[in-house]
Amino acid sequence: MKRYVLRRVALAIPTLFAVSLIVFLLMRLMPGDVATRMVEGHAYAPTLDALRRDLGLDRPIHAQYLDWVGGIVLRGDFGRSYWTRQPILEEFTRRFPVTLELAALTILVSVTLGVLVGIVSAVRQDTVSDYVGRILAILALSVPYFGLAVVVVVVPSIYWKWTPVWAYVPFTTDPVSNLKIMSVPALVFGLTRAGPVMRIMRSALLEVLRQEYIRTAWSKGLSERTIVLRHALKNAMIPVISFVGLQMPLYIGGSVIIEAIFRLPGVGLFFFEALTRLDYPVVQSVNLIVAAMVVGLNLLIDLSYAFLDPRIRYR
User: What is the mean pLDDT of residues 300-314?
Assistant: First the structure.
């Protein structure tokens, strides 16, 4: 187990290096100049040349990259925002709980709905329940989450002359008000992700129900509920967990659009605003932090397989 974890961590290093380099270069290749935008926006520096010198944009690109990466590796310093001059790591830490709550609620909604509908669809194969579940899965796959989010925000104002106010309230301040606000974007995002979960759950459970040990359980006279929930479900959940792990970048990356639409003060909105303003250090650092989190989460998901199926061993 230790060798497996160490090997995965070692493989993560070149992955994160590639992510940092690609994002760094892409930001420099984007059209526009952050210094020009800041001067036009009456930023703190009076002249364009002085601003570029202050931001270090007059240095060679490789020197800028090495300075940024060196600060992260040697000092844990992700730099400061060009526009606000605030430390990026502090701002990320302050906003991350909002994004984490949104991602957790989205996963809860998508997995709960997908697994429940998938179980019913598999157990009642080729019945009305199965056909309804498969149609719902196709609809969930067909509707883009950002389109559904816009509809949820716009339709009430058009037909009922009511515009919902999405004023975020921290969970620690008022849990009830917080959940009222977060439940809508989480439900919108989770519904669109429940479709593939349901299809994977149905296929995996149908395969497990055809195994020899399930036939043995039937021959012993065990109830359908016991067979499905106690014997078949754990093994059928392995593909679902794999899928959720692979979708982690989407759960986190999708928060950029969801938070922008619902004006949630999370990392997604922070990233969106930085991207529109060409705030290089913020975009680079947020991408790198999220990439490191996704790598770590995928490792945890891989290790969870041993709990679901004791036959799995790591070397």
Answer: 65
- Helix/strand/coil percentages in the chain, nearest 5: 75, 0, 20
Nearest 5°: phi and psi at 20? -60, -40
The number of C-alpha atoms within 13 Å of 100 and in the hemisphere containing its C-beta is 12
The mean per-residue pLDDT over the stretch 75-85 comes to 86
The domain covering 95-268 belongs, at the CATH homologous superfamily level, to MetI-like (1.10.3720.10)
Residues 112-131 have pLDDT tens digits of 999 999 888 888 888 888 88
Cα separation, 68 vs 240, whole angstroms: 38
Question: Residues 44-63: pLDDT tens digits?
Answer: 556 777 778 888 888 888 88
Q: Which two tokens stand for residue 152?
A: 């949820």
Using an 8 Å Cβ cutoff, are 258 and 247 in contact?
Answer: no
Residue 112: the pLDDT is: 92
Count CB atoms within 10 A of the CB of residue 223: 11
Paired residues of 80 in beta bridges: 87
Alpha helices in 30-167 (DSSP H): 34-40, 48-55, 61-70, 88-123, 128-142, 145-159
Rounded Cα–Cα distance for residues 241 and 308 (Å): 10
**Looking at the predicted structure, is the pLDDT value of residue 287 above 70?**
yes
Contacts 24+ apart (CB under 8 A), 79-82: 79/281, 79/285, 80/281, 81/274, 81/279, 81/281, 81/282, 82/34, 82/38, 82/55, 82/277, 82/279, 82/280, 82/281, 82/282
- Residue 80: φ, ψ to 5°: -125, 155
Separate counts of helices (H) and strands (E) for the chain: 15, 0
254 or 70: which leads in pLDDT = 70
Q: Where in the chain is the domain with CATH 1.10.3720.10?
A: 95-268
CA distances to 51, 63, 113, 129, 281 from 69, rounded to whole Å, are: 22, 10, 42, 54, 11
